[in-house]
Design a protein that fits this description.
- Helix 7 packs parallel to helix 10.
- The strands form two sheets. The chain has a six-stranded parallel β-sheet, sandwiched between helices.
- By secondary structure, the chain is α/β, with parallel strands linked by helices.
- The protein has helices at residues 7-17, 27-35, 48-58, 63-69, 75-81, 99-107, 124-137, 153-158, 213-218, 236-250, and strands at residues 22-25, 42-45, 70-72, 90-94, 115-118, 141-144, 167-170, 181-190, 201-204, 221-224.
- The protein contains ten helices and ten strands.
Length: 261
């Protein structure tokens, strides 16, 4: 791994790698990516000392790694590297995990945590929030169908770099991972009476049109979240959070702070 000596060196390396790398936008995205093993060839900060002080306060476990990674750049150099400056004035580029490795994780027999499927999502920020939730609950991965790129910079920003804590891929409905498929639908069975197994595939329809016909046909069971009459719907991320929380109560989820094998 190269540790650039100057802001100019970092900028040159950044421009060389930016077309094939994942943008980590802000301190927290970089912190999470490093914490979960991302390969980070270049990282910059307008105020390196302040960024390391933030690490000392909020993420001492990665402080030494950030000390080796971060190169101080000028405000002008930083602004030239990122499309939308982050308040922490920290940014980095990371190597995206291989598709093959992610698919192997998603298809693993005896999965100990569900896979979340977003069926043709449309909102980049919602997708990022779902990935952050999935990482927090220890889900095996998040799969999107349709045209949205789950590694789009806006999604990665919304996910706070936690794409590296779970397997994130885009697949067709026919390619979804194995496991019993539970699809969220207002006409389904009340989820409070349903036990979600650890190897479940949990599918959520798009924000506007719900489940696609293909995914609905593939579902083993339709389940519904409790909702007051005349309330139209929940936000996508809220629906995923409620469902994963229900799984954590009924399945074999690890206790908070406890890693799964």
């Amino acid at each position: 791994m190269t540790d650039p000596a100057t802001g100019a060196d970092a900028s040159r390396l950044w421009h060389r790698l930016s077309g094939t790398s994942v943008l980590l936008d802000g301190f927290h995205a970089l912190k999470h990516a490093v914490r979960f093993g991302a390969e980070v060839p270049v990282a910059v900060a307008v105020d390196r000392k302040a960024a390391l002080a933030l690490a000392e306060e909020l993420a001492p476990d990665v402080r030494d790694v950030l000390d080796t990674l971060l190169t101080e750049v000028t405000q002008a150099e930083y602004a030239a590297l990122v499309p939308r400056p982050h308040p922490t004035a920290v940014a980095a580029l990371a190597v995206r995990p291989s598709r093959e490795a992610n698919l192997a994780r998603l298809a693993r027999a005896g999965r100990t945590a569900p896979v979340v499927v977003l069926d043709d999502p449309r909102h980049l920020g919602n997708a990022g929030a779902v990935i952050r939730l999935a990482a927090g609950f220890g889900a095996t991965g998040v799969v999107t169908t349709g045209t949205l790129d789950p590694w789009h910079p806006t999604v990665v920003r919304g996910g706070a770099g936690l794409h590296f804590a779970t397997a994130v891929e885009r697949l067709d409905v026919a390619e979804l991972p194995p496991g019993p498929l539970f699809a969220l639908d207002p006409e389904g069975d009340d989820i409070r009476g349903v036990e979600l197994p650890d190897d479940a595939v949990l599918a959520f329809g798009s924000e506007r049109s719900g489940l696609s016909a293909g995914l609905r046909a593939r579902a083993d069971r339709l389940v519904a979240l409790p909702m007051r009459p005349q309330v139209s719907s929940y936000n996508l991320a809220t629906s995923v959070a409620m469902t994963l929380y229900h799984w954590s109560l009924t399945g074999g989820a690890a206790a908070p702070g406890q890693d799964r094998p």
